[in-house]
């Protein structure tokens, strides 16, 4: 996957921040700031900005803590982020951060989790968080509304461009998260694609059955887990896209995407 995250990908995301083909907005740092506020960060907390990109969320995190660390898989992003006063910056995967065990008080991954091998990523979060530490990350829910055409087009386009794209079965994640050493503190959702950029974020009961597109979940670490549980909660394709494919009598979902690339 590393060869995907290069200067070309960096350029794509910088352009995506400015505009998008479907008119949806990438959340501004102030929108992410409302989520960061929910993390209850103290000045003395060691905080990891996981997938820091070019450092666009540093100033929001730095309002709460003076001990902010950053990693990103793309070295060109790390070079861009070096203009901010991170405690340290290095290139690494979310699944293998190269930090010591039980090092951080708080970890956040904003706009990152959908390109991560999520089960391995959660195990790594468990490893580098202190017991009692808190992590929060955004992602895409596997079960979004069938009429959310912008979400479907975004999923299709990412697949056809061969970009990594993982969907979380958030219901399964919440049901099984104790096996990964965590408990759920809060869940925020954005019902449809574009709501996040508009700041339309709702806090909901994590244990209710919701249909939505994006989420921000906050977890607290209860205990150390050494081995990744044999429990899967992330998938290459959304449940919604699979439903659309099945309803069209198309056997191959990638072919279904290709056949719908102009719609």
Topology:
Layout: H1 7-18, H2 29-37, E1 46-50, H3 58-62, E2 67-72, H4 75-81, E3 89-91, E4 104-109, H5 118-128, E5 129-140, H6 149-160, E6 167-168, H7 170-176, E7 182-190, E8 202-204, E9 214-221, E10 234-235, H8 239-247, H9 253-259
Parallel strand pairs: 1-2, 1-4, 2-3, 4-5
Antiparallel strand pairs: 5-9, 6-10, 7-8, 7-9
CATH superfamily descriptor: Vaccinia Virus protein VP39
Uncertain runs are: none
CATH class wording: Alpha Beta
Strand order of the largest sheet: 3-2-1-4-5-9-7-8
So what's the overall shape? globular
Main beta-sheet annotation: 8 strands, mixed
Kindly name the structural category. Answer: alpha/beta
CATH architectural type: 3-Layer(aba) Sandwich
User: Please, what is the average pLDDT?
Assistant: 91
Number of domains: 1
* CATH topology title: Rossmann fold
Radius of gyration, whole Å:
18 Å
Strand count: 10
Helical content band: 25-40%
End-to-end Cα distance, whole Å, is: 29 Å
Question: In what range is the share of β-strand residues?
Answer: 15-25%
Helix and strand succession?
Answer: HHEHEHEEHEHEHEEEEHH
What report would you give on this structure?
The chain is of the alpha/beta class. Helices cover 30% and strands 21% of the residues. The strands form 2 sheets. The protein has an 8-stranded mixed β-sheet. It is globular, with a radius of gyration of 18 Å. The mean pLDDT is 91.
């Amino acid at each position: 996957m590393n060869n995907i995250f290069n200067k070309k990908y960096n350029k794509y995301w910088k352009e995506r921040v400015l505009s998008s083909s479907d008119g949806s907005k990438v959340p501004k740092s102030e929108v992410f700031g409302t989520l960061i506020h929910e993390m209850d960060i103290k000045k003395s907390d060691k905080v990891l900005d996981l997938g820091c990109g070019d450092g666009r969320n540093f100033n929001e995190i730095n309002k709460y803590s003076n001990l902010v660390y950053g990693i990103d898989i793309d070295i060109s992003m790390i070079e861009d982020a070096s203009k901010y006063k991170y405690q340290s910056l290095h290139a690494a995967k979310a699944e293998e951060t190269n930090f010591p065990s039980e090092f951080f008080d708080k970890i956040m991954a904003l706009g990152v989790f959908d390109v991560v091998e999520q089960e391995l990523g959660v195990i790594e979060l468990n490893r580098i968080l202190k017991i009692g530490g808190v992590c929060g990350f955004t992602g895409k829910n596997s079960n979004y509304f069938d009429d959310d055409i912008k979400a479907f087009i975004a999923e299709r386009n990412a697949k056809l461009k061969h970009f990594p794209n993982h969907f979380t079965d958030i219901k399964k994640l919440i049901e099984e998260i104790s096996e990964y050493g965590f408990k759920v503190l809060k869940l925020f959702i954005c019902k449809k694609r574009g709501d996040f950029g508009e700041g339309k974020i709702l806090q909901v009961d994590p244990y209710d059955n919701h249909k939505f597109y994006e989420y921000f979940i906050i977890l607290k670490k209860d205990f150390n887990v050494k081995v990744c549980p044999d429990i899967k909660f992330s998938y290459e394709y959304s449940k919604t896209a699979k439903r659309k494919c099945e309803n069209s009598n198309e056997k191959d979902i990638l072919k279904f995407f290709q056949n719908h690339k102009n719609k």
